[in-house]
Write a structure and sequence with these properties.
Layout (H helix, E strand, L loop, with lengths): L13 E6 L4 E6 L12 H41 L5
């Protein structure tokens, strides 16, 4: 299974760490030390890491779309004002 890049720093320098107190595994980023969710297996840890990375990308894209919608709304409002609309 290929690990997705780190959702915080985009590094692909990742490793799976064994967490003794929680009796599980988690993917860690070597560059920024981000840690993924803990799972009972290495495969589960990688799956959780990849879901987390994809969720962050989806969240960023949703935020970008929302920002674009706000900018469009502001621009359209300014155009209407110039045409004698909402003042």
């Amino acid at each position: 299974m290929d690990d997705k890049p780190c959702p915080f720093c985009s590094s692909t320098d990742l490793f799976v760490r064994r967490w003794i107190p929680q009796d599980g595994y988690a993917v860690n980023c070597e560059l920024c030390d981000a840690t993924g969710p803990i799972s009972k297996s290495e495969k589960g840890a990688r799956r959780f890491w990849n879901m987390r990375a994809l969720l962050n990308v989806a969240r960023d894209e949703a935020g970008l779309q929302q920002s674009q919608a706000v900018a469009e709304s502001v621009t359209n409002g300014d155009q209407r004002k110039g045409e004698g609309g909402n003042q």
